[in-house]
């Protein structure tokens, strides 16, 4: 994306912590914006965003095949081949939003900032972010992991389990993968890892070591198996764990079922009237879809100029205009809240893009949609809730 954003978690005041009941905790997120433009020609920047998606979903499909013994029904074609060290040359892969939050592992607790991601399943951290030798409750499983991060870097290392806390929520024997080499770049500081919130069928870890929220559910550490993202264009962003924070939305919630065996949160939707299939992914910075479908949608929008550069579909428009993009889930329509990605002083780009060669036959609903709704992930009833932000 053109502007580099990062969501950085601030520690809660004691009064807020006291107001939350055990197993039901709301994490405030604060956005930091870097207004420095990355250059007038952003084609390479968007190419890196697309390649991030290709690598991420290729890895998830590989995990699904290993875990489930069959190809994922959303997979298209052959998966990307990668070397042990990751040979994909990219830049600016961390442009966009990282929902970085503060968690604690160990006893005494060790604080770690991680990127909360509904499009992946495991908790992985850089070397030094977690020190098992300093924790009295650390357990070395003697199991190894190998994963590929979004820019092609390999994350290889050892799986540990330890005590875990986030706010007033406490768990034990929660899995954390400690990498041998940095896979999170230093420019992403204070983020030192990634913590997945998806379902187990796409996890890298062996099945005995479930995603952290699944483990908290199994142990009864959360009041309900529900979490809620509310990402606002201004202040007031939050991730709520263990229930629904009714103060974050107005009106009613519209519910759409998902199949937990998919691993991803897959739901039908429409965009400007076109019926599509979507994956709700907090770890992706754009809305990305198959090029032919994206082109159909862009052609329905007045005042934009569509370009197709080697299968990369995007639309530009004068920054003083407001293109209309409406996304519908269930019975509710959500106008895209932030359609302006600045390319230069006068030209903006719509954050709805297409690319040939994607490994999935679905749209990825990333950050621009999260800024437009309060999104509820109900793992107990296998449904997704969408409501208008308060």
TrEMBL record:
<feature type="signal peptide">
    <location>
        <begin position="1"/>
        <end position="19"/>
    </location>
</feature>
<keyword id="KW-0732">Signal</keyword>
<dbReference type="Pfam" id="PF00026">
    <property type="entry name" value="Asp"/>
</dbReference>
<dbReference type="InterPro" id="IPR034164">
    <property type="entry name" value="Pepsin-like_dom"/>
</dbReference>
<keyword id="KW-0378">Hydrolase</keyword>
<feature type="domain" description="Peptidase A1">
    <location>
        <begin position="99"/>
        <end position="387"/>
    </location>
</feature>
<feature type="active site">
    <location>
        <position position="117"/>
    </location>
</feature>
<dbReference type="GO" id="GO:0006508">
    <property type="term" value="P:proteolysis"/>
</dbReference>
<dbReference type="InterPro" id="IPR033121">
    <property type="entry name" value="PEPTIDASE_A1"/>
</dbReference>
<dbReference type="GO" id="GO:0004190">
    <property type="term" value="F:aspartic-type endopeptidase activity"/>
</dbReference>
<comment type="similarity">
    <text>Belongs to the peptidase A1 family.</text>
</comment>
<protein>
    <submittedName>
        <fullName>Cathepsin D</fullName>
        <ecNumber>3.4.23.5</ecNumber>
    </submittedName>
</protein>
<feature type="active site">
    <location>
        <position position="281"/>
    </location>
</feature>
<dbReference type="InterPro" id="IPR021109">
    <property type="entry name" value="Peptidase_aspartic_dom_sf"/>
</dbReference>
<dbReference type="InterPro" id="IPR001461">
    <property type="entry name" value="Aspartic_peptidase_A1"/>
</dbReference>
């Amino acid at each position: 994306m053109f502007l580099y954003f990062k969501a950085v978690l601030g520690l809660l005041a004691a009064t807020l912590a006291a107001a939350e009941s055990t197993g039901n905790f709301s994490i405030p997120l604060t956005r930091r914006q870097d207004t420095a433009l990355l250059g007038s020609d952003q084609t390479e920047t968007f190419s890196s965003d697309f390649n991030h998606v290709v690598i991420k979903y290729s890895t998830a499909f590989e995990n699904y095949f290993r875990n489930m013994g069959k190809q994922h029904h959303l997979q298209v074609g052959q998966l990307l081949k990668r070397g042990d060290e990751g040979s994909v040359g990219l830049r600016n892969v961390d442009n966009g939003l990282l929902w970085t939050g503060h968690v604690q592992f160990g006893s005494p607790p060790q604080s770690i900032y991680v990127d909360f991601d509904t499009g992946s399943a495991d908790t992985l951290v850089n070397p030094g972010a977690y020190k098992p030798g300093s924790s009295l409750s650390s357990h070395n499983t003697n199991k190894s992991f190998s994963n590929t991060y979004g820019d092609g870097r390999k994350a290889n290392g050892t799986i540990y389990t330890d005590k875990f806390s986030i706010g007033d929520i406490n768990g034990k024997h929660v899995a954390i993968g400690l990498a041998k080499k940095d896979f999170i770049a230093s420019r992403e500081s204070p983020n030192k890892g990634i913590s997945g919130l998806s379902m187990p069928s796409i996890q890298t870890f062996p099945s005995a070591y479930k995603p952290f929220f699944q483990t908290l559910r199994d142990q009864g550490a959360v009041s309900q198996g529900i979490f809620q993202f509310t990402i606002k264009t201004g202040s007031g962003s939050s991730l709520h764990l263990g229930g629904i924070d009714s103060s974050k939305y107005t009106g009613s919630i519209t519910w759409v079922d998902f199949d937990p065996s998919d691993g991803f949160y897959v739901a039908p939707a429409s965009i400007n009237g076109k019926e599509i299939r979507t994956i709700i992914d907090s770890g992706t910075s754009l809305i990305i879809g198959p090029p032919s479908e994206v082109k159909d949608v862009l052609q329905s929008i007045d005042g934009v100029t569509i370009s197709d550069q080697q299968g990369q579909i995007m639309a530009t428009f004068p920054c003083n205009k407001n293109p209309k993009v409406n996304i519908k889930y269930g019975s509710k329509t959500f106008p895209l809240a932030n359609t302006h990605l600045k390319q230069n002083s006068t030209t903006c780009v719509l954050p709805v893009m297409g690319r040939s060669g994607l490994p999935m036959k679905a749209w990825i609903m990333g950050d621009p949609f999260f800024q437009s709704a309060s999104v509820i992930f109900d793992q107990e009833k296998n449904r997704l809730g969408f409501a208008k932000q308060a």
